Amino acid sequence: MKPETRPDCQAVTDSILSAGRDGGLDTTLAEHLASCPACAELAAISARIGGASRAAIDVAPGFHSRMVAGATTRLQHRRRQRIAVRASLGSAAVAAAVLLAVWVPGQPPARLALTEVPSMTEGLDGHEALAAALRTEAEVPAPADERAQTTDDALTEATEAPEAPEVTEFGPADAERMERLDAFINAALGPHMAMPGGSAAGVREDAAELEGSLALTPAQQQRIDAIIAETERVAAQARKALELSRAELDHALDGPNPNEVEVAKLVDRVSLHESQVRKAHVRGWLRARRVLTAEQRKALGNHRSARRERNAARRHHDEHDMHADMDDLDEMDDMDDPDDADDADEPDDADDADDARRDGRRDAMRGHREAMEARREAMREQRDAMHAQREAMRGAMEAKREAMEAKREAMREAMEAHREAMRDSQRVQRQTQREVQEAKREAMRERHDPEELERALEEAEREIERAMKDADVEGTIERAMKDAEREMERARKEIERAMEEYEQNGKRHGGHGSAPDVRRELEQAQRELERAQKEMERSLKNIDVNIEVEMQRALEEVRRELERAREEAEQDDREQSSAGRPAPPAPPGRPAPPAAAGRPAPPAPPGRPTPLIPAKPFTAVGTIKVEF
Amino acid sequence: VPIYSLVYEQGVRPTEAAAARRERALTQLATATAPRGYRIAFDLLRDRAEAEDAVQEALARACEAADRLREPDAIEGWFYRVLTNVCLRQLRRRRVRRWLGVGRRGPGNALPDEAPDLDDGERDAPADQALAERQEIAHLLDQLDALPAQQRVALVLRYGHDRSIAEIADMLDVKPATIKTHLVRGLRRLRAALEHLS
User: Fold this and answer.
1) Are A192 and A198 a contacting pair, CB within 8 Å?
2) What pLDDT digit, counting tens, does each position of A518-536 carry?
3) Which residues of chain A does B165 touch, with a Cβ-Cβ cutoff of 8 Å?
4) Do A64 and B31 lie within an 8 Å CB cutoff?
5) Angle formed by the axes of helices A127-139 and A172-188, to 10°?
6) Which residue among A63, A68, A589 places its CB closest to the CB of B26?
């Protein structure tokens, strides 16, 4: 069986664990400890660990200053690390936000530039901007599915038209054509025609066309007229604001260095006023429609659908005529060929008129188609560009604001850390200077004062006398002597009384009182009394001797301590003078004396003066015990 | 003065109040607690520089945590706990460095300067006996150095600094039964190693 598994061994182990280095074992476990070498070894190891740890060195001089300075430096370092980590995270977040704001999937970078994209106002009013938009479209063709986004009938018609020819350069002929087309566009895309519902005036026009079937009552006509007037008033206000916004936008765009943010705001304002105009017309149309009865609404719906069909048929017919005209034009081109000039007859006036009419219609249709296509593309490009630009600017502004915020925060924290560091360093510096000055004063005083030892000795003697006075040794001895004398007197009286009783009993019983046992007891009492007197005298002598020895030992300790303190001060002074450092370092390799109880205290760091008297004051307490 | 009194009654800015509290905690710890902590750290690490580094690190961490402690009086216990953890980490790093062969050798437990001073009775003993005792202590410290870090810390705190098992468990953030296990295993390993040496 292993020793550790026995119950006593386990109990000894538990006792060692719970008792610590100074604890003891009870009697039974102590007996087991004496008989079990394994347990004895365990106990010895615990005691040896305690002994090894008792050999721990004391702190070196300047420990307090070093600890405070080191901890302060570490705190500052940690604070700077935290600030750096936060600043890095903030910068990364700002960079990610900027990337997300700027990056648009599938969007060519050229469309993000504001100066390369004409504004809506320029597209409506300026020919050069429209030509620029056409050039942009020619450079970057838009996908075909984007062309069916407008709701206008004219735009839908233009979408169904064949592809517009490529325009590579804008010349004077194009300018004339564009001027001619502007009138057509304004007529076809007027504000009340730009929406599917039309306007309140459209209702009245429809009613005028349907005089027979719609049959508006006078009250209905009056209400519709009022609605039209109100709608026109609201639309006029919005139109006026729209014109002002367009003028501001033009002014901003004509400047040498237009501000992108301001231009974006003006574009938003123009779009807002345009939508207000359209909303006013649509709202008026809806209010006018609510005036009608159900039959009138039905008749109006039929009329509008019939008109749409009629318009579609007319457009189809116009296209057919246009193709026919194109064929005629080709034939005429063939007839104008010089090779066929001989075969040509003299043209009559009717043919000339037809040709002129066809040419005009053909040119008008071609120009109309091109203009519609260009306008549609320009508007789409402008809308996309404005949207992308607005998003980019918003993201950029957001990122810039976050960056400024992070920078401001980092600067504030850095300033605070700097202030705190300066404050801590000044405090540590002041404390170090104070300790150095104190150490220098102490070292100078101990080194240059030759009577320091004598004063210390006198002080130690006074301390010993004070301790003896505190302990009241003489009083204790005197009290013990009085107690002993009283005890001796009482014992003497006891003996005398016993002798008297013995004599009286002997007389009473006829002279038989001198028994040997009684006499022996009396003699023994006499001997004990004499021994007690001798014991008391020896105790008094021992007390005197012990006090003398303790005094000599204490004085020797004080003398040794003074010598050691002087050596320490001289060594520190030498190191300071050689190294020139403000704080005296710890002596390398020199063990400081252990701080054990009853032994002289180690030399204190320079901040505190070296105690000349041992930390534990000398105590002299005499104990006198007299036994009878 | 509590920090809320500084902030709300005396009108001190919160950052300055926190700094003042940290400074006060640092002064208190460095004056009253750091010397004992230094002895513990030296017992565990057996190196002056590393022990002072550990004490400085523990002071910094304890002062950082001074604002977050619910009980201001608990900062001393917190300091000892941080110090023990720092020493444990240092011991593990030292072991890893030793295993990798990149660090310097152990702190030299057999140095005579680090050996204890003898008592009055032992001072009169023969020189060879004192030398033998110092060598024995050096062997013991070497074997302590070879123990796992947890066992070493438990043994030193229990028998070297007379800390109770509950205190050691609180320092190492483990259960008291775990500390008992570490103590028993550490004692047995020490006994086996010393028997092998003898």
Assistant:
1) yes
2) 667 777 777 777 787 777 7
3) 17-18
4) yes
5) 100
6) A68
What pTM value is reported for the model? 0.36
Quickly count: other Cβ atoms within 10 Å of residue A128's Cβ.
12
Question: ipTM score here?
Answer: 0.75
Nearest Cα residue to B109 out of B157, B150, B143, B148: B143
Q: Tell me the nearest-neighbour CA distance from B175 into chain A, angstroms.
A: 15
Segments in A449-515 forming alpha helices (H): 452-471, 473-508
Using a CB-CB cut-off of 8 Å, the residues of chain A touching B161 are 53
SS3 category, A22: coil
Query: Please, are residues A621 and A80 in contact by the beta-carbon 8 Å criterion?
Result: no
* B59 to A13: CB separation less than 8 angstroms, yes or no: no
Whether B43 sits inside 8 A of A71 (CB atoms) is no
Chain B residues within 8 A of A418 when measuring between CB atoms: none
d(CA B53, CA A98): 44
The pLDDT of residue A280 is above 50: yes
| d(C-alpha A30, C-alpha A24), whole Å | 9
Residue-wise pLDDT for B19-65, tens only, equals 777 788 888 888 888 888 998 898 888 888 888 999 999 998 888 88
**Which residues of chain B form beta strands (DSSP E)?**
none
- Rounded to whole angstroms, how far apart are CA atoms B23 and B31? 12
Residue A614 dihedral angles phi and psi, to the nearest 5° = -55, 150
- Please report, as a single letter, which amino acid is at residue A567: E
Contacting residues for A378 by C-beta, under 8 A, at least 6 apart: A118, A123, A129, A130, A133, A134, A136, A137
**Side chain identity, residue A103:** W
Q: What is the pLDDT of residues A464-480, one digit of tens each?
A: 777 767 766 667 767 77
Within 10 Å of residue A182's Cβ, how many Cβ atoms? 15
A52: which residues sit within 8 A by CB, 6+ positions away?
B116, B137, B140, B141, B144, B160
Kindly list the distances between the CA atom of residue A92 and the CA atoms of A97, A99, A404, A414, A587, in Å, as whole numbers in the listed order.
9, 10, 14, 19, 50
Q: Alpha helices of A55-150 — where are they, by DSSP H?
A: 63-102, 120-125, 127-139
What is the distance between the alpha carbons of residues A530 and A492, in angstroms, rounded to a whole number?
A: 11
Cα–Cα distance measured from residue B88 to residue B156, given in angstroms and rounded to the nearest whole number: 12
